Recover the amino acids of this structure.
């Protein structure tokens, strides 16, 4: 199969394993990976700049399908010398007295943001990380973003009762999905190459069973019966 496919993905998501499977199954179809800001991922798909996107839910889903793939652990980020440094896990109630930054690209669906409200909202998660590293406030993000923006002077631990984000494959709503989208769906869902929605595999030829072989050969030829030999009676002495 020829052609090309563009897959957008948001920071923290690692599409490499799926890209390798794509190359194995569709070596003649070019796959282009494009990292985009979290806030722009859905728009890239709607505009046709990307055929599909790996993005975080909840989010803008107008006119888009979304297949959830996995749920990310939410963590709280703080300086290494913070009072939370010895903690292995925190709860929202632990943040009550602390300023909690909520960047404009935040993907967590808060019912009510805990902690003390900040004076402003940073533009991006990267900006918020810089502020926390300066010793001001805390930040709650999906764990993959904490890893992406890791710094030696920061630490993060799970926030047990925080809202979580889900990574999903998103693509335009259509009556029938293009064949390449179906291939990508199959790959991210872990379907095998022999799956009904994956690339069609050539059916293996079945070996005939012994009784079938006999039927194909036809009935065995009947042997002609030889006439019985006549035995001469012996004469008595």
């Amino acid at each position: 199969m020829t052609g090309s496919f563009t897959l957008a993905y948001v920071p923290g998501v690692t599409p490499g394993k799926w890209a390798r499977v794509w190359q194995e199954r569709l070596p003649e179809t070019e796959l282009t990976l494009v990292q985009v800001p979290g806030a722009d991922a859905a728009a890239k798909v709607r505009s046709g700049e990307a055929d599909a996107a790996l993005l975080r839910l909840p989010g803008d889903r107008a006119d888009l399908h979304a297949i959830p793939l996995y749920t990310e652990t939410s963590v709280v980020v703080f300086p290494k010398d913070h009072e939370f440094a010895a903690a292995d896990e925190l709860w929202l109630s632990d943040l009550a007295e602390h300023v909690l930054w909520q960047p404009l690209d935040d993907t967590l669906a808060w019912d009510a943001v805990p902690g003390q409200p900040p004076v402003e909202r940073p533009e991006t998660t990267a900006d918020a990380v810089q502020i926390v590293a300066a010793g001001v406030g805390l930040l709650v993000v999906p764990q993959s973003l904490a890893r992406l923006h890791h710094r030696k002077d920061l630490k993060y631990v799970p926030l047990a009762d925080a809202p979580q984000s889900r990574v999903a494959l998103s693509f335009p709503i259509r009556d029938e999905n293009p064949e390449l989208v179906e291939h990508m769906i199959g790959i991210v869902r872990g379907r095998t190459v022999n799956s009904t929605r994956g690339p069609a595999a050539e059916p293996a030829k079945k070996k005939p069973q012994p009784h079938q072989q006999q039927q194909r050969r036809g009935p065995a030829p009947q042997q002609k019966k030889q006439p019985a030999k006549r035995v001469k009676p012996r004469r008595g002495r």
Summary: The first strand starts at residue 4 and ends at 9.
